[in-house]
Specification:
With 251 residues, the protein is an alpha+beta fold. Helices cover 19% and strands 27% of the residues. Strands 1, 2, 3, 4, 5, 6, 7, 8, 9 and 10 form a ten-stranded mixed beta sheet that branches. Strand 8 and strand 9 form a beta hairpin. The chain starts with a strand and ends in a 5-residue tail after the last strand. The model has no long low-confidence stretch (mean pLDDT 95).
Length: 251
């Protein structure tokens, strides 16, 4: 018996998803609420624990994170009554046989938000990177268009890494006008999987292109497995959100 949870959280005050001793993480808070309702052990007799579709870093948000655990489904209202205000369960449902939150996922979609105006915003400072300087939006779109397809993203993940495969299949990538706020640009990007800091380094590098510090051709060259040092800075985490996780359609 596996339950699929869909949840959202404001990552500002979390040290990321993954449990870390003595630190406030999404996993630690959510597992604590589940154990209060269901007890310490899963349906298999092992300690009750969550698997997750994508581990988010410190300060990164989620609008459609997916996690799973081996026990019966719990009414989301019951769990939300035990959870703090910066995390909420959207749904809890029985999962198909053999389903796994991470391994069964076929794609993840992230959104990175950039506030592009001279004045900072008291409403966006937790959810969008403030960029008060001019940006070339055509250059941003050119960068996004070359991402689609399979590329080597070695330049877009830290040099010290556990990854052994650096190719990723980008299914969609585009910059859009923000739907909820004026002067906000959003990078929407969907891939089979992502590496640590990958979206944030892509954004940091694209912003350099859009500021005419490097060319779109130089950006495209980075997709051939160039060293991390040749790409741009890692954009701050608060502009990033895990927007959605896709799974095969059930028969």
């Amino acid at each position: 018996m596996i339950t699929k949870l869909t949840l959202e959280y404001d990552g500002t005050d979390f040290i990321g998803w993954a449990r870390q001793p003595g630190l406030r993480t999404v996993q630690e808070v959510l597992e604590g609420a589940l154990r209060t309702v269901l007890g310490e052990h899963s349906a298999t007799g092992e300690p009750l624990a969550l698997t997750v579709a994508g581990r988010t870093d410190r300060g990164v948000h989620a609008w459609g994170q997916v996690a799973g655990y081996a026990h019966e489904a719990v009414d989301p209202r019951r769990l939300n009554g035990l959870l703090p205000d910066d995390i909420a369960i959207l749904s809890a449902e029985p999962a198909p046989d053999g389903w796994d939150a991470r391994r069964s996922a076929i794609s993840r979609t992230y959104c990175y938000r950039v506030l592009t105006r001279p004045a900072r915003s008291p409403f966006e400072h937790r959810y969008a990177l403030w960029w008060p300087r001019p940006l070339d939006c055509d250059a941003l779109e050119e960068c996004a268009s070359v991402l689609i397809g399979t590329h080597d993203f070695t330049a877009f993940t830290p040099t010290e890494t556990e990854h052994v495969r650096f190719e990723r299949d980008i299914l969609a990538a585009e910059w859009r006008a923000g739907s909820s706020a004026q002067d906000v640009l959003e990078l929407w990007i969907e891939a089979d999987t992502f590496m640590r800091h990958m979206v944030r380094i892509l954004v940091g590098t694209m912003l350099e292109v859009a500021s005419h510090q490097r060319t779109p051709a130089e950006f495209a060259n980075l997709l051939t497995g160039r060293p991390r040092a040749q790409a741009g800075p890692t954009a701050l985490p608060h502009g990033l959100a895990l927007a959605a996780v896709a799974y095969p359609a059930e028969a």
